[in-house]
Amino acid sequence: MDPFLTIPFVIQRVKKETSDTVTLEISRPDDRVKTHSPAGSAFSFLPGQFNMLYVLGIGEIPVSISGDPNHPEKLFHTVRKVGAVSIALSLMEKGDRIGIRGPFGNPWPVNKAQGMDLLLMAGGIGLAPIRPVLYQVFPERDRYNRIGLLYGTRAPEDILYESEIKQWRSKFDLEVLVTVDRAAGDWKGNTGVVTTLISKVSFDPDRTLVMICGPEVMMRFSCLELQKKGVKPENIFVSMERNMKCSVGFCGHCQFGPWFVCKDGPIFSYDQVKDWIGKREI
Amino acid sequence: MGAKYVLQASQFQFLFDALTARGYQVIGPKLQDGAIVYDALSSVQDLPAGWTDQQEAGTYRLENRSDSAFFGYTVGPYSWKKFLHLPARKLKRGKSAEGEFHFVSENEEIPKLAFVGVRACELHAMTIQDKIFMGGIYRDSSYAERRENIFVIAVNCGKAGGTCFCVSMKTGPKASGGYDWVLTEVIEKDRHYFVVESGTGAGKEILAGEEILKELDCPLAAEAEIALSERIVEETACQMGRRLKTEGIKDLLYKNLEHPHWDEVANRCLTCGNCTMVCPTCFCASIAEITDLTGEKVERVQKWDSCFTEDFSYIHGGSIRKTAKSRYRQWMTHKLAYWIDQFGTSGCVGCGRCITWCPAGIDITEEAKGFYGDS
Ligand SMILES: Cc1cc2nc3c(=O)[nH]c(=O)nc-3n(C[C@H](O)[C@H](O)[C@H](O)COP(=O)(O)OP(=O)(O)OC[C@H]3O[C@@H](n4cnc5c(N)ncnc54)[C@H](O)[C@@H]3O)c2cc1C
Ligand code: SF4
Ligand code: SF4
Ligand code: FES
């Protein structure tokens, strides 16, 4: 099937998360419509994969799937408005249509973390592609040892999925540490960069799998810090971001060193990318 | 290897006719605006017989030859990629009404084209683009269908250009596969003919090629004719204007991503992107939205793009590759190193176009030397 063919989906609900971020709940108007998904005819996805979201007359952008992989029929995308397409997406209302192509990219190695401690690290909107990991591990919580979430964001009012995080904490034995860049008023939590949280969470470095999504510098410093603590580079995974036009390896825009982020990524082990991620303008 | 035949230069038009009769449009080299370009040919008269080119870094000049060779020059500014990976094409069309929309894949007319005069390096370039557009889990159906509908008549080079280095890249000057026919042009004192060999395999083009050979009633080539044709190509191999050392080049470039030589190239590079446009393997493209005034009709259009533009690597907050240095590094490292990891082959076939058509005369073979020596 034509990988460029956009399938119209309908917005079911728009949830305002923060002043600049919304979560869209989207469904397919007709379940018989097939996407080109190599996984099969029905739309299914794995945590860490993304779709190309298209707004008529404006354009198309890559956005991670932020919903539950066990319920792919309800598609969720969390979008931060930064420019033309993301702003148009943030202005969507129930009943509006957007186009979807996907899912694309490789997934987080969630199963590899079974029997290990799982440490999730997110910066800002980077929490969106991490959420499906939590949805996948919670129903099988006892297969994992400790699960920690380290989350850094600009300010207390920018915290995503806040009430959900509170529930997870108590219900699924999830250790959550949040830090903000700047806090005003009654914030009693951590301030500073997310790497400072690493020493505040307990995990067994030898048997920990880490997944990180955030700005490139944040991921790089987190990797360095984790490595210092004794986590093996092959157990640390990052989600890379590059300009994307095609998402199928044809347009060349997403190149990052020897890789195409769209088809070889977006998820890479630190072991793979450690010589590249610190280099400027790669 | 197939049998070799002799086609007289005076019979060359019959070949064109036979291809046309089978529904092919003949595409080949012709003179246009002071250069030899690939375009539709109406007869052998359109070929630049008796012309040759002089190429050096940043210069291209046409000159007369002392004979009337049909293929006595090397490659010009255009490559065959413009017929397979189109410079611009509609990906899909959509209609919308009150916010609802519907897209259909663009149904393209796929022409049957006969490429006449494809050089060895260019055959390799096509194989390289095949890997990009047809070699993975996703297939570019426009490219794939175009590719399936071409008849390829290759020509072994009888002369190397000043910027050629196919010998270094092991891509020429002798065509080693990927053609339906390969010609070697031979000019003796009073004879002008081609030694013709048909490709191997059982594709419909190969079969058509054999049929045409029978139709033209070409005699088998004599040993002396074959020997002469082979010597011509061997001599070409000794005339390479450029050389590129390729041993260990991937690791060499990976080790030197922060080498000061990149700054030195950056001082000369105008980031015009000419090198990417003329390169037969460069494949980058962008996709844009085109809407009519009413907003009811929408098209998604794909166009060639270049890694030399600032926009190419734009992500929110600024481009990844802001400097000329990083963009030249991206291009050259992609060609000579990343490509090997991505597709198992170099991205450079040694055609020399990027050297000839660079307004600053930047020479990939010279720049690569900057990293050997003190690595
Ligand atoms: C694999 C992947 C997953 C992503 N997941 C999310 C997510 O879950 N939520 C979210 O809010 N954002 C996500 N992004 C970032 C999102 O794609 C950009 O914010 C978006 O492309 C900006 O487009 P724009 O038109 O709104 O902005 P503009 O600044 O107007 O961008 C213009 C064009 O540049 C390109 N571009 C700009 N920024 C980016 C970028 N960061 N990454 C790739 N292309 C870019 C796009 O082609 C875009 O159309 C993801 C990016 C990638 C690569
Ligand atoms: S990089 Fe230059 S020499 Fe190599 S194939 Fe491209 S245009 Fe030809
Ligand atoms: S190397 Fe030459 S042709 Fe290529 S972008 Fe720079 S100036 Fe232009
Ligand atoms: S987005 Fe086009 S090659 Fe990756």
Tags for this model:
heterodimer, A: 282 residues, alpha/beta, Elongation Factor Tu (Ef-tu), domain 3, Rossmann fold, seven-stranded mixed β-sheet, six-stranded antiparallel β-sheet, 6 helices, globular, B: 375 residues, alpha+beta, four-stranded antiparallel β-sheet, 15 strands, 32% helix, binds flavin-adenine dinucleotide, binds iron/sulfur cluster, binds FE2/S2 (inorganic) cluster
Write the layout of secondary structure elements.
The complex is a heterodimer of chains A (282) and B (375).
Chain A: E1 7-18, E2 21-27, E3 50-55, E4 59-64, E5 75-80, H1 84-90, E6 97-104, E7 117-123, H2 131-137, E8 147-153, H3 162-171, E9 174-180, E10 190-191, E11 208-213, H4 216-229, E12 236-239, E13 255-256, E14 259-260, H5 261-264, E15 267-269, H6 270-273
Parallel strand pairs in A: 7-8, 7-11, 8-9, 9-10, 11-12
Antiparallel strand pairs in A: 1-2, 1-6, 2-5, 3-4, 3-6, 12-15, 13-14
Chain B: E1 4-8, H1 12-21, E2 25-32, E3 35-40, E4 51-56, E5 59-64, H2 81-84, E6 88-97, E7 100-105, E8 113-118, H3 120-134, H4 141-148, E9 150-155, H5 166-169, E10 181-187, E11 192-198, H6 204-216, H7 223-237, H8 249-255, H9 261-268, H10 274-278, E12 285-291, E13 297-304, E14 314-315, E15 318-319, H11 324-343, H12 353-356, H13 364-369
Parallel strand pairs in B: 2-8, 8-9, 9-10
Antiparallel strand pairs in B: 1-11, 2-3, 4-5, 6-7, 6-13, 10-11, 12-13, 14-15
Helix pairs in contact in B: 8-11, 9-11
One iron/sulfur cluster binds next to α10 of chain B.
